[in-house]
Amino acid sequence: MKGRWLSIGLYSALALTLLAPMVVAALWSLVDPKGGWFAPDIVPRAISLHHWQAIGLDRSLLNSIGLSVVISLAVTALSGLLALPTAYALAKIPFRAKRAIEMFILAPLIVPGLIVGIGIGYLFFRVGLAYSVPGVILAQTIGTLPFMIRILSATLEAIPADLIFAARSLGATPFKVGLHIVAPLAWPGFIAGGMLTFVSSFEEFEKTFIVGAPQVETLTVKLWAVLGGKVMIFPNAAVVTFIVLVPTVLIFFLAERAMRNDGALAAGMGKL
Amino acid sequence: MTITRTTLWLLLLPGVGYLVVFFGLPLVLALLTSLGMGTIGTNEGFTLRHYADLFSDSVYRDGIRYSVYISVAPTLASLAVALPLAVVLQATFPGKKLFLTLYKVPLVVPGIVAAFIVMILFDRGGEMSRILKPVGLSLPKLVRDEWSLGVIIALAWKSIPFMTLIIGGALASIPADLAAAARSLGANRQVVFWQIELPMALPGITAAVLLVFVGSTGAFAVPSLLGPIYPKPLSVWMYEAAYQQNDWGLATAMGIVMSAIACAVLLIYYRLTHGLNRAIGGETR
Lengths: 272, 285
Fold this sequence. Notes:
heterodimer, A: mainly alpha, MetI-like fold, 12 helices, 75% helix, globular, B: mainly alpha, 2 domains
């Protein structure tokens, strides 16, 4: 079969760079606290679900999980609401300043998150939004909004204008056009945009850390606290890693399927 | 369909307005604060004192140099992997569809998780050294090391799919006829790649390199966890100045310097590739 060796090579590389690290992280999350895992052992002496069962007892971790989910849902809803009209205008209405506005919208993707974070952190510090959940939601939306506008406008752009004109000339009201033509054709892009926004909020660290830490402890901030502290507790870090990664990667896969092509993803991720 | 200007601006307002208030305004405020003209709170009048403090302190100068280093090195490392990978992915092979989904996973992996993975694999006594020890091999120091190899590994690992995605898109948009025509005129595959495909994909490659470079400029979590004790990147000093010393003038000055570095690189790179494009264009004419 054509390309068999290429396939073998690529999948081996993937196994080494992606699967193997995950297996080691999984082993760390399964270390039995009584046996420990010390060099030179390649696998832990004993394996147990101790650290996984401990999640249920760890109030602060449960709080972080809930907080991360709530913040990401709010960021997704806010980004979607703000992005839709703007994306529609960019996709369907010709106007002169369009290029400049598109550039401005992409700017937050280009300026490093930490610098955006310091700017907004300073402002929030002054107006009393620092260390608050609304502050974190507003700060994360700066990063996800450009992405959402990009994906939504790419989706809306792909709907042929002829179709809309045809429906209108046959007597459909703008509302009916929206309901029966635009919505069915656009929803895969909308779903994908929403899921990617959720994911990028869920895994966001820098802006959240600057605006919210240590009071607002999302999962990534929690992971930072576990890894950056005086005593690094690898099994705990491994458990938090999987709590962050499993939903993130699953939703990302679903979004990929809904999107069907890379175009919008590449566009959303910041095609200059 | 007639749409009035008012309707247009009303449609644009939610998205653009939000970014003006929460992105544009804070950046302007940061610039003003770094120049001593904090509009909210302390106002000491125009001064370049914060910039003078920044550039006269060798600790911060080292920080700037180190920030540039941990932006350039991961960008080059990921380009070295992403370019060949993007080329190879243009071919068909069994399981391509699944591979195209799986290789993108690092896109959504937080930097802290990447740093954690590097720790458990490459730190002293990490999994790699345990596996290599029985065969008599040992790893150099890769975490908190002088050359920040761990930082480079983590940042490059995270940027490779992003770069591959953009370069792959640029390569895929080159019409296949062009390569076929060149081949039929006697060019071999290498000539086709170096003289047709690579120059045509250059805008995409430029964009990818730029975005990865700028993304690494402000990296904070990865160098804090994996980098050496000294030097620290400007991003870490910036955080400390703001939240530990409460010196927002200095912190915002650092932010502006980092943005300026990013913008400068953007401009230089644009000029370079622009010149390159012209050179290639001149050659073929």
